[in-house]
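Crash report, auto-generated. Payload:
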Amino acid sequence: MTLAVSILPEQQLAALNAAYRKVVARKRLRLLAGFAVFVAALIVASIGAEVNLRTFFTYFGNFISYFDRILTLDSGLRVWTDFGEWFWGLRKWLKLLGETLLISYVGTLIGAVLAFALNFFAAENTSPAPWLRFAVRRLLEFARTVPGIVFALIFVMAFGLGPVAGVLAIAIHSTGALGKLFSEFVENADMKPVDGIRSTGASWISCMRFAILPQVSAGYASYALLRFEINVREASVMGFVGAGGIGQELIVAIRKFYYSDVSAILVTIIITVFLIDITTGWVRARLFGKEARN
Amino acid sequence: MGARPPVRQGGAELSKPQDVDTAALRARYPDVFSRPASARLATPAMLVAAFAIFVFGLVDLDFSPSRFISGLSQLGWISMMMMPPDPGSSLPLYLQALGETLSIALLGTTLAALLALPVSLLAARNIVPGIVRFPVRRFLDSIRGVDTLIWALVWINVVGLGPFAGVLAIAVSDFGAFGKLFSEAIEGADQKQVEGIRASGGSALHEIRFGLMPQVLPVIAGQVLYFIESNTRSATIIGIVGAGGIGLQLAEQIRVLEWQRVSFLILMILVAVAAIDFISGKLRFAIIGRRAVA
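Recovered output after restart:
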């Protein structure tokens, strides 16, 4: 079987070829220009960030040997040869880890409740008034953009050292992050049930309760769990500024060069984070997979 | 759910068939109409448990009402002191610190992306066998399990205080995140192009270069831009532990209770993050748009 390939006249072909070349050349030029700008930005940035390759290569050995040191006990043995010695403070650390988990739990719950209270005002389709929506959105944006640890620093000044500051910082940050996600959920919800319920003369609150909430509550739960997972990580460093949890112990160990303690605490944190990841993943699968109906 | 009395309003001929229907349905789907007690009590029990943990957390974390109220009044006083935001005489210093922060974010993210690209190939299911993939994935997971602030502390031990430690901290912690995201992008890529290259006799490297990369690069570029944006936030805080940038200034001003300067710095962070959001949003759109055209 032969295919009929129409061969264009030489002139027409040349013109098309030239046009194609020109388009490709322009595209390449744009890419090259973008790349040049990017490299220039990198060079400026490396001056700004005091990048010093000589320091880096001189001391890079320190980075490797740091891991060597945190994996060595005082006695000079490798850490895993003597678990009892490596995890000598396990009981204390587990208690602090429990505190970390509680901080993130309480913080996430407060944040989720506040976000829940605010999200209907922030969503485009349910907000009672445009000015209210604008105000709530800016508030959520503020809570989300200021890093949690900055709130923690300020709250430590107001509420004193300890987990209270950490909880509040996490609560505010979660409110901002969850409020945005929740309101996006509401914006994606089907508005027909709302019309139906409004047509019966129901109030705004009833509309939200019976038309919107059943559509979005599973999504809310799923995102709140995800936020809890993120907050566990965040709570593990809240102690750096004195806001409770395992971070307190970790920063002391790092600053005072208790090398094997650093690795032991890091290992417990990483294992905890893994376990939380797995558990929340399992809970989410159950909530979403099995009971997706309600 | 109790038995509902038949509706009388619509007349006997309407209510009767409904009655029969319910009875038939009831007989056919007994588990829908009379759910076992365990299923009915599951949700309230979970709510009660969640609330109990919350209350336990409040008690365990020292949330006494008096402390909370005095803290709130302290916080109110602090916010009064913050007004109006005022940089004092150190505006140039703050601007420089902000530049440092942006440099840290840009360099750290770029470095992380460059390092993660080859490694992500080793973590993708469709490139390497499981025996390589598993350890690489766990390695990336453990890097991600450690917070950026902790990496910053480690790098400060290696290259000393300053923004360079911040760049390296962001590079390492994002390396873990990018490795995972890139490898997922690679796994999601269409295999037909790769098969086409293989069919025309290309080597494994050709398959990656011409079959995979054209599909994956726009996705990766979008993710990198998104991370530059979110790293601007992370870069603002790593200064709190001494790794340069605006966080260093912020932490210092909070510690010496210069609240007007604190509020000015927070304002600067908000504006900078909003600006980066805007720019990277535009760029991301440009990249995705170009991809749609090509």
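Post-recovery validation: The mean pLDDT of chain A is 84.
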